[in-house]
Amino acid sequence: MTETQDPDTRTVAFLVATEGIERVELTEPWGAVTEAGHTPVLVSTATGEVELVDHLTPAGTQTVDRTTGDITAEDIDVLVLPGGVANPDALRQDEQAVTIVREMVEAGKPVFSICHAAWVLIEADVVRGRRVTSYPSLRTDLVNAGAEWVDEELVSDDGVFTSRSPDDLPAFCEAILGAIRGAD
């Protein structure tokens, strides 16, 4: 939270790599957070702009606010991991990004993952013993990492929230807003 920020305003970090971010999985939760009066922050592995996609088709860019090197879990109230295929695959190779995810979970702060972003949860070793969901193709990866995979639109397990795909965005966004209200 910044020094001038309203004490009732929460900082919601959207953690992404530099490309391959599924547009709606970033922009819809971002809009919900903004509309609710909270502060979304785009955190990436590099400065500049990140490239969004609609499945595999380029769909614009968004400017990075902070990098993984200059933010910690202490700076964040809620963490959102948008999907896409290339985005989480690259993000899970960034040690600082994985550390942020792990530290958020260890601190008991809400972490939200949608679609393929569950790869980052696996890399952070925070799915073992948890009930989760994801895009169906990640089922084996999650089970092999010790998770119980289920086919549901939204799964919450001890502060880790997961959804399957853009079709689940209404429940995903509502859960983010619920977690923010719970942090008040």
Structural notes for this entry:
Helix 1 packs parallel to helix 6. This protein has helices spanning 23-35, 86-91, 95-106, 118-123, 139-144, 169-183, and strands spanning 11-16, 21-22, 39-44, 49-54, 57-63, 66-67, 78-81, 111-114, 131-132, 148-149, 154-157, 160-163. With 184 residues, the chain is of the alpha/beta class. The two termini are 13 Å apart. Helices cover 32% and strands 27% of the residues.
Structural class: alpha/beta
How many DSSP E strands? 12
Strand content: 25-35%
* Major sheet characteristics: 7 strands, mixed
Q: Summarize the amount of helix as a percent range.
A: 25-40%
Runs with pLDDT <50, length 5+?
none
Rounded to an integer in angstroms, the radius of gyration calculated over CA atoms is: 15 Å
Number of helices: 6
Element layout with pairings:
Layout: E1 11-16, E2 21-22, H1 23-35, E3 39-44, E4 49-54, E5 57-63, E6 66-67, E7 78-81, H2 86-91, H3 95-106, E8 111-114, H4 118-123, E9 131-132, H5 139-144, E10 148-149, E11 154-157, E12 160-163, H6 169-183
Parallel strand pairs: 1-3, 1-7, 2-4, 3-6, 7-8, 8-12, 9-10
Antiparallel strand pairs: 4-5, 11-12
Helix pairs in contact: 1-6
